[in-house]
Amino acid sequence: MAEAGWQATVLTLFPEMFPGPLGASLAGKSLKEGIWSLKTLDIRQFARDKHRTVDDVPLGGGVGMVLKPDVVAAALDEVSAAPGPRIYLTPRGRPLDQPLARQLAEGDGAVFLCGRYEGVDQRVIDAAQMLEVSIGDYILSGGEMAALTVLDAVVRLLPGVIGKEESHREESFETGLLEPSLYTHPRNWNGIEAPEILASGHHQKIAEWRLEEAKKETRTRRPDLWQRYLQGQGPDNKAKE
Ligand code: 6GU
User: Which residue's CA is the nearest one to ligand 1's atom 7?
Assistant: First the structure.
């Protein structure tokens, strides 16, 4: 019984951008192991005319070009059997966060539509009820790097990609707090001592120190996260303090 694994399907004008950095490190190893699979489809193969046109001028005028709805619809039809939500990468989308990454990882896969030029005709996005996702408040030249980012966030959550289940639990955005600062040997580096408590062997005291450290760093670095944490609206939705 060969398990298919988590199935990523990517529709793009630049299939050569995949797997890209996901061919290395943890993601690359798990790809080779079959924990997840990656299929890319070149949107241009769904162009209908001899010039292989995929885009046209924006209706109403304006700069740039828009991917044609018929071409994108044909590409989506081709992968109709692929599992998971249809995701259109766009800076107008829902910001990617850890709960969304976890939700995707719990499914069987996802189909990613990467736009280039100014974007994609909205009618095909709406007709296919695509989930629109952004990776942050800045503009990339296309959805490919965003799809790679979403995939990296998802793949590392798949069972068997990271050894210890616990290596997720205490991570930033799982607890709603940033991680505490980290230290390793030597305890005295260039005359700078690592916090003494970390070498004490008192596991309870170390855990308490790390929690306080995480709170302090979150408060100062990310007041937005800190307010959400205080209001108990962190990812795990538990009331805090
Ligand atoms: Cl998903 N696409 C593009 N082109 N730019 C972005 C983005 C996505 N998310 C943030 N910036």
Answer: 91
